[in-house]
Amino acid sequence: MKPRRVVLPTFELTEVCSPDDPGARPRTLPTPDGPLTYYYRVVIADDVAMGMNATSDHRVPACAIKLFPVVLGEDGKPWTEVCLQIIAKVIAMAGEVKIHTLLGYADDLLAYLRFLIATNTDFTVFPKLASLRPTYKYLGYLNRNIESGAISKKTGRRRMGRVIAFYNQLIIEGRIEPEYPPWQRRQALVFFSTPRGKTAKAVETTDLSLGGTGDANDFDGTIQDGGKLRPLAPEEQIEIIRALTALEHTEMTLIFCIALFTGARIQTILTLPSSAFSKSPNGLSEIILSVGEGIADTKKGKSLTLYFPPWLYQAIRVYIQSNRFSIRRDRWVRKCIQPYAEPLFITTHGNAMYDTRKFQSDFNPLAHIRHPKTGQVVRTFMAERLIPFIRENGFPKFDFQFHDLRASFGMNLTDEGMLKVERGELKLSELRNRVRTRLGHDSTATTDQYLDFRKKVQLHSRAQEDYESHLTSLAKLACEATQ
Question: Which residue spans traverse the membrane (predicted)?
Fold first, then answer.
């Protein structure tokens, strides 16, 4: 059997106990000799911290989550050391469970397990010759995969980092005692940007580092803004809107328009509640919508402000009153076990398109889903309908990722602002602050990538009429598409 990662719909950390212990529950298992009954109870958070047994049923469980990842070996049995570390991570998160972090950790350790099996390597044995130690062998393996293009340097660095963290914890807990060190420690300076400029910090690293900060490329037409984003050319943006209009998918049209005209990330867009669109847009040049802090999920949970053009805000209000939305909402209500805010975007089956952080953190013993909802329905629509449609209609090599719409919004905002700077109607510092605020950047260094983008790709300044015409035609097309 091939090593794999499975996801349990629910998981509670329990312990075997006596029938008369507080919180004891019976469980009966069938055996060849007849039914076997034993008693167990949920481990309480206080017990983990104090080393005590449970005395009350109302205290918080130490580890109770939905979507618990388990790494299985060739024999189909869980990899004990990884499972224990995932449980420890859940306990450390103290209610703020990050499902994607846990799944990513499990996937990277699964990749390591497959390497161990393929190379017949014992992960606990560290011989005198460094090149034969599992950590150094894995470093060489990752480097070869990076050179061949099988994985990116970013992926390789993340996997190596998680393997190092895995061993660190095993050594701290005394689960393994390597005869020779799994790596050599060393000091290094890390340079990074802050709102006040660039600074450096001394950190302890290892000689297992793959080096660098990512794939080498001085400028490849992308912007580093929560990932490598490619601002789409004006004609590409128009083709996307035209394709959405032709495909007649109301929800997707609204989702893509929100991304292109507000710069919101997919996580924020798909966790917007329908109740956020109760205000009338009459007479307003922009409708301000605050997100974060329970209104809609944002990156790192910080508070942000979205600025909606009135036509888009009104199109959403019309959609909420439609029969199409009513049918989806009714299906969602029938499925919803716990009281959550009604999402704006619901699938035809009545599911939310993106699980909120609160939904992920709230334990529900009746949950049966084995994968988190992270906007897969949008990416599937792009891969199976939107991009093929555009390729078949005059752009055979067209491709993009959803997050590129955010970069496109940022560049549209920058290009429009630069025209005002050239006319003396706006200061460059004011434009920088406007772009930074609307995109929610912590660092002006990220914002400056937008301001410098045109210069880097050596594009000539476009005339005022060109950009105003582009933005006007884009808004008109999108408005017609959402009617």
Answer: none
Inform me whether the pLDDT recorded for 136 exceeds 60.
yes
Beta bridge partners of 48: none
* CATH at 431: 1.10.443.10
Please check whether residues 165 and 238 belong to one and the same domain.
no
* Percent of the chain with pLDDT strictly greater than 90: 62
Question: pTM for this one?
Answer: 0.81
- Model pLDDT for residues 59-105, shown as the tens digit of each residue: 678 888 888 999 999 999 999 999 999 999 988 887 677 888 999 99
Q: Note the pLDDT of residue 214.
A: 46
**pLDDT of 57 above 80:** no
Please name which of 54, 115, 55, 109 lies closest in space to residue 80, comparing C-alpha atoms: 109
With contact defined as beta carbons under 8 Å apart, do 344 and 274 qualify?
A: yes
Residues 407, 350, single domain; the answer is yes
Which residues lie across from 64 on neighbouring strands?
12
Q: Are residues 456 and 329 in the same domain?
A: yes
Is the CB of residue 478 less than 8 Å from the CB of residue 241? yes
Asked whether residue 213 is assigned to any structural domain, the reply reads no
- Of 407, 397, 345, the residue nearest 376 (C-alpha): 345
Query: Can you give the pLDDT at residue 55?
Result: 46
Structure-block tokens of residue 452: 């410098």
**369, HSE (Cβ side, Cα atoms, 13 Å):** 15
